[in-house]
Amino acid sequence: MSGKTVNSAILLLVIGNAMAILSDVFIKMLEPGAPVFQFAFLRCLLTLAFLIPLARKLDRQNLFGGLKIHAIRAHIHLVGIVCMVIALTNLPLATANALFYAAPILVMVLSAFFFREQLTPLSVTAVFSGFAGIIVILRPVEFNWAVIAALGSAFALAINAVMVRQLPKEQTTAHKLFLNYLLIVPAAAALALWEGAAWNPQILVSAAGSALFILGYNITVLLAYRQVDANQVTSAEYTGLIWAVAIGWIWFGEVPDLWFLAGSLMIVVPLVLIGLRHRRRTPARGFNPAAREERPERLVAEPTGGSGQ
After folding, report:
1. 8-state DSSP, 64
2. Which of 69, 170, 201, 307 has the fewest C-beta atoms lying within 10 Å of its C-beta?
């Protein structure tokens, strides 16, 4: 699967989103009350280690280009990871991922607010339908700190996605990811020390599995978007919610109700329609040298996370 055709790119994204959900599964399998900051530190440290083989992609002469923006994004990313862990360990897998899909909606809102981007009627519909869908899924009686954490993770994903355009354009994706995790590690280590929890081998295993699968997701994203237009295949990203429902049902016995299904459709359908509309407007160009750097749906956080961080 090279990603050189639309069909192969879609298949890569379907597989990649399954890997992202498996990353979430490793988090969800943490014991109740597991040290969140210790997990965040270990996952960031291990992700940085996994990125070492890509060190040749770094621009060593300008290693810290755009340092201020990188530092802001890195620490927002850390907040997003912490929020994601809280959400996944306290909410059903599918519910948490449905809330994470608020990220692309928030990207549209933030882009319009900060960069004066014009929202089309369909985009406005997506915003209102998405937020209404979140309310339908949650219903006021189910609003709690885990829900706030899930929305906080989505907000972190959206902010990081919007800030991508402020990073140096000459930096490769590997460079951006490496610098992001390098800048996260000191703050994550300080929080883990402040937390003071005893080191737990299970945390190490969960962090390693989560980091490995989310990096696998990012590799599939890069392969998929390298040689086809994003608008031709982006709707395949939303298969992540299907994977979340299936795995949550089979693995954790979490049976979705009609409220969840209705709310999820309200979130996802307008986003898919936007992707299809762009696909009709933009003919296939073959090779697209500008691979999408980050996905607002899932940042490994990034590239940008469903869960995505």
Report:
1. T
2. 201
